[in-house]
What does this fold into?
Amino acid sequence: MTDSLDGKMTARLDFTGTKVFVTGGTRGIGRAIALEFAKCGAQVAVNYLRNKSSANETLAELNQYGKGHLAVKGNVADEEKIVEMFDQIREAWGELHVLVSNAASGVLKPAMEMTMKHLHWTMDINAGAILPLSQHFVRLLPEGRHGNIVAVSSLGAIRALPNYFAVGASKGALESMIRHLMYELAPRGINVNAVSAGVVDTEALEHFPNREQMLSDGLAKTPSGRLTTPLDVANAVLFLCSRYATQIHGQTLVIDGGSSVVA
Ligand SMILES: NC(=O)c1ccc[n+]([C@@H]2O[C@H](COP(=O)([O-])OP(=O)(O)OC[C@H]3O[C@@H](n4cnc5c(N)ncnc54)[C@H](OP(=O)(O)O)[C@@H]3O)[C@@H](O)[C@H]2O)c1
It folds into this structure.
């Protein structure tokens, strides 16, 4: 077996025995992350907010790759719901080893049309949630066991885009929180990192008034010649949680086919 792309076989990472919680794990990028972990032997808990049919479909698909997967409902911006979800995970598994904070939402409007309520709502889901999620995750990680936290960010954290005032600011805050969490948690054997994706064609893009333009511009500006897929992001998350990445701490790994470095 070889890990080289030129080789005839590709070795899969082995996450047998690893228990993973993916917020927003039932659709889009989160779903791809959950499925890749399950294919590599992990048990996965996927969180969702409202869409029960997507949760059921994703859980059915996860169950094709082993037993013991969970779907847990709750708003990541509501700490009481976070406590309930971690209680469900504790009851089912007793412990947890990987947290992928992927769920996001937010108000897409020009800053001049935005209210403080819109801003707080977006910040609470996309940035604030990482605090209680990490605190409850650390309580479920067994003493002495290595753990991983990966947050899913976007290029709006460092670039200016139309209608992206609140979401971009929330992702900038998230990436900063990841660095500060790393400072506290690396000494405890926990790798804390983020991945940041370019445009990915998921249902989330349907909320953008300029979806078609984002996709065509995104493709035109991507040197690798194709748009980033949910699987590209999932592969990067699994890499960061693997034995190949144990000395990577506090970083934001960009997955965008090179688009963000083009002038
Ligand atoms: N798509 C892109 O172009 C792109 C680019 C860069 C980064 N990202 C980031 O990638 C992540 C996933 O995006 P996506 O495009 O895959 O999104 P998506 O297809 O809209 O899926 C969102 C998922 O998050 C869940 N969710 C939303 N709000 C939630 C909340 N408050 N509490 C709990 N769960 C919640 C949804 O549950 P329900 O099904 O119940 O609604 C769903 O499972 C986000 O962090 C996003 O910012 C996306």
Summary: The mean pLDDT is 95. The two ends are 39 Å apart (CA to CA). The helical segments are 28-39, 52-62, 79-93, 116-128, 130-140, 165-185, 211-220, 230-240. The pocket of NAP is lined by residues 23-24, 26-30, 47-51, 54, 75-77, 102-105, 125, 152, 154, 197, 199-200, 202-205 (CB under 6 Å).
